[in-house]
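Field notebook, page 730. I keep forgetting to write these up properly, so this time I am using the form the group agreed on. The chain and the ligand, magnesium ion, are recorded exactly as supplied. Prediction of the bound pose follows.
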Amino acid sequence: MSLLRFQVVKEGFCKKAVPVDEPSGRPSAYFGQQVFNREKMFSYLPKKAYDAVIAAIDNKTPLSRETADAVAKGMKHWAMDMGVTHYTHWLHPLTDGTAEKHDSFIEPDGKGGVLEEFSGKLLIQQEVDASSFPNGGIRNTFEARGYSAWDISSPAFIIGKTLCIPTIFISYTGESLDYKTPLLRALNGVDEAATAVCRLFDPAVNRVYSYLGWEQEYFLVDESLVAARPDIILTGRTLMGHESAKNQQLEDHYFGSIPSRVEAFMRDLEIECHKLGIPAKTRHNEVAPNQFEIAPIYEETNIANDHNLLLMSVMREVAKRHDFRVLLHEKPFAGVNGSGKHCNWSLGTDTGVPLFTPGKSPEQNLQFLVFIVNVLAAVRKHNGLIKASIMSAGNAHRLGANEAPPAIISVFLGRQMSGILDKLQAMSSSDDFLNIDGKAQFSLDLPQTTDLMIDNTDRNRTSPFAFTGNRFEFRAVGSSANCASAMIALNAAVASELIDFKAAVDRRMAGGEGKMQAMLATVREMLAGCRDIVFDGNGYSDEWKAEAARRGLDCETSTPLIFDNYLTEQSVAMFRKTGVFSEPELKARNEVKWEIYTKKIQIEARVLGDLALNHIVPVATRYQSVLLDNALKMRQLFTPEKAGKLAAQDIEEIEKIAGHITAIREETAQMVEARKVANRIVSEREKAIAYHDTVAPLLDTIRRHIDKLELMVDNQMWPLPKYRELLFIK
Ligand code: ADP
Ligand code: MG
């Protein structure tokens, strides 16, 4: 593959990038090549504009129109130097994935020709028809018009010949119609709340960043086989298919050697990622056959999330070049592991202090405990909401299915961390940890070696939310999800706790308590109220389900009902307090969630119905005729007694096949009827519940009959590629 590198040279008033040969193919040579990053901005923008943009990104200072014009001009120059002809506002609507509408740079020049134009106005804001995207009635409640608006904190990038500008997407009256707007609000919320707390320890702190490192799991299937599986094409998963005789029982796939065809795909994908500034770092096989993972180095959450969305679309394209189909669905195959997207999450200050890492001084250790306990309190209080944030029709197959995180959100801390919290709780009074000057004397009894993490070896794979030494790993997120959903709920909930924490400390200090004492007392009080979110045992066990219910954790398993958590008084108040969502926004977004859930099950039900009646039943009937024919011919050839004996098994098989065919026909008819009934329901919530309760279960029962038939019917007749073919890439 020939790689192009670009060199910045001065030309006229503006510096220009020209392609040069890529001599070494080293990632450092082409990393970020397609991104309008700080380096490019520095080259393409006047110094004043550059400084203003950087200040806007780093310090949230407002950006003037004049600066926006200068940025637009520089961006256009850079893009055109890269051979770009079009630009698009790149937005994250409430569907899976991203949306874009491409416009060319051309404007009439008044003399019959055109010139390339791109103004600050076009960069900053564009009108988008909100009615073409899921909006949950916001459009009716407010206005049909929507706007996309430039997110200056995320750099523009080039895909093909198009300049993509990351944008938020809002209604005319300012309600969010996307994932990015509330994500930015939540990040802002956690920044403000955490900064206020950090300043109690160090007044030099001006900002707290949220960091995200996702691990994207996916399946690869040969494209030619996918072409013969309408279920994969239309729903992203197999709706039928008997387990292969061999699947993951030998545990030989995880970290096994990567098939060369797959490795070629991965290499190509990583190059594309690096050109787009996505710091892809790790690749390996996953547990199930044909299942793999790619993970980057963690980044600021908004950027990391943009990069994950970008990755998902780039993956699909790169896979095509290698005759693969990428399956991002949470459960493409029954009987083998599904796919998740672990979200490794942490907070850190602009002074370089990671907040989930113990420090070297007693004060730093107290700060560490304050943040850990605030996270525990947030996950405890907003337990159901955090589960709702990762719930979807696809992820419902993973959760609670004894392979992935359970459908109850608890936090794993590990022995060492739990020991520290025990100690904190066991203190008779805060004074135990304070000397006479009110200075902290706080020891965590940890080896104080630099950066030695709290022991993260005792990993618990059954926990949905695990502390892993310097970060939390939210493992319940689905592989196809927009991580923003989880990051919004988590960052907002933590922001809310930090606000309360700070207020409680302020109250104590106003009552005359010293700062350290006030913080210790508050954190201990908080811990007492949330400690029961910690569970280090086996999350799959039935004992845990019973225990979690006793603790009052959310144990609901029905996806549409889990969405109700967004509308509880507590959630509405929390989102209002943190400025992340207004109540009308929450209501509208839940309408969208229910609607999408219904549509996903509806499509699956239709596809399964078609396949069952058009593909499976006719083939099973044909095979049944072969057996019948055989039995009849036996009668012609042999004595009735002998024929009866010889054909006995055929007849038994014929009866079984007939039984399955009848069941498939009846249950498919039932499923159609259940859909009809559900479709008449007006309320999106009630309709989703009906789909969950009456349609979805039939998908499984119909499938069971089909999978039985797959084992009986002549292999040559079977119309669909089987699991053993789909799942083992050579
Ligand atoms: P695992 O062993 O769970 O696969 P890795 O070491 O591969 O873990 O890291 C998983 C992800 O966690 C990577 O994206 C990594 O950059 C990210 N990560 C590491 N430290 C942090 C942190 N402090 N905050 C957020 N993400 C982090
Ligand atoms: Mg991990």
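OBSERVATIONS:
- The pocket of adenosine-5'-diphosphate (ligand 1) is lined by residues 211, 213, 215, 282, 295-298, 344-346, 354, 470-471 (CB under 6 Å).
- Confidence is low (pLDDT under 50) at residues 1-23, 447-452.
FOLLOW-UP: compare against the apo run.
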